[in-house]
Amino acid sequence: MDNTSWLLSNLFKITFFETLHAKSSNSNPCSPKKSTGRRGGGDASSLSDCPCNAPKCSTNTVCDRGKTGAGVTGSRSENRETEKSSNYLAAGAINPGLLRHLHNAARYRLPQCFEGACVSVKQSSASNWIFGHSLSFSSVSPGGYKVLLSYLDKDKPTDLPYFVMEAAPGGQLSCEFRVGPTQATRATVVAQIANGKFDSFESIVDAYFNSFTASVIAVNREFIAIHYLQAITERLSLGAEVVGRGRAPELTATSAAARWAGEEHSVSATLGSRGLDLCYARVLRPHLTAAAMLEVGFAIRKAVATLAYEWRSDDWTVRASVDSDGLVGATLHRALGGRRAKLACAISALLNHPNDKFRLGFGVTAAIV
Fold it and tell me: Would you indicate the residue range of the signal peptide (predicted)?
């Protein structure tokens, strides 16, 4: 796939509030993702991506720590972008990635199921701006029309600065701006307007060093989270999180984290006052990866276990999962090709056994070159 097609298919954010910690009220089956490997126990395997990679479909906020509340801040985000650490570091450095990406090797295998239908068209201009439209229909979440605007250097699509905005009728607006103040730092600001009123303001600062990373995440005046992850060896990483809440100091929480990763497997865990989050991922074949996850919430006294797998080729990706709550989901993402308009489609199915409910979704994306 040429550079322009890769840029349109993987880096243009079209889902409303599809930022790391932004609030979301709907889902969009026309939002392709990407996952990239990382040295020293990377965020995900470095398998090649299908141009129609997984769409964002679930509601995630900065406070979403999973079904039991056991995860670290940002660990359940469906924004599957990762940073290319090699450009931030000196030659030979061992970088463990960010703490909020600790479990990505396993969580990237989960299908992001959606419901309804969506059609999206994206078109690049002669400059670095990308313009698009999205129309979605759903019986369980708000749909409608959205206009999309993004800025990205086409010659260096993973470089900064980066800007993305999405607006919808009724006064809904989401805007994300990302810059690199220095070679080893990255700053992200997310602002949201809902129903014509200012809804939230979120800021993230990530710093990359030769053998560790640090992050500071602040959301409005609600709380601030500090992350630290240290590479002990090329396979072992240890870290910690501290979360402070200004209006509720008694809810301040701490967590310890660890990850052991090899070429074909990854084991990661976080343990804190909220609970235990344990993940395991293993490459069974060159294009087949299996994962197992366990969440245990101490406060609510609940545990959830999940099994998932991902099968991918150059043109399609299949993900499926089943958990102890009785949810069975699967997604199929397929690149349809095209000369001037790169087409891709996504099909989703979700079965809720306890409630005896079934949801089906279908989406089409056209990236006009």
Answer: 1-22
